[in-house]
């Protein structure tokens, strides 16, 4: 695996070990790990923003990615193939109208 993938795995594992308590300290720890994850994937987010021509709504695209990342973290299971989470993120982007539909890509 790549250095980035290893770092993502560590951050997600750290988030998953934080108790679900609603106190400020635990929320701050989760937020810190989520911010690191977003920093790690920022180059990919920018890449897909350019590829899909979303430069005029880059902030919205980044927010949609953050929502997809949050959902992927909640559903994360290290046992199955990671491609499931990539598909989930792509589906979330399409549902938000931030990515072309599958049929549009091949038209």
From TrEMBL:
It comes from the Bacteria. This is RNA polymerase sigma-70 region 2 domain-containing protein. It comes from Croceicoccus ponticola. The lineage of its organism: Bacteria, Pseudomonadati, Pseudomonadota, Alphaproteobacteria, Sphingomonadales.
């Amino acid at each position: 695996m790549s250095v980035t993938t290893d770092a993502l795995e560590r951050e997600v594992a750290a988030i998953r070990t934080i108790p679900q308590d609603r106190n400020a300290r635990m929320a701050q720890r989760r937020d810190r790990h989520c911010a690191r994850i977003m920093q790690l994937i920022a180059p990919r987010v920018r890449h897909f923003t350019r590829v899909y021509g979303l430069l005029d709504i880059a902030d919205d695209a980044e927010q949609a990615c953050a929502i997809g990342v949050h959902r992927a973290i909640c559903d994360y299971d290290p046992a199955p193939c990671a491609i499931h989470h990539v598909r989930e993120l792509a589906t979330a982007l399409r549902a938000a109208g931030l990515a072309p539909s599958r049929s549009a890509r091949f038209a």
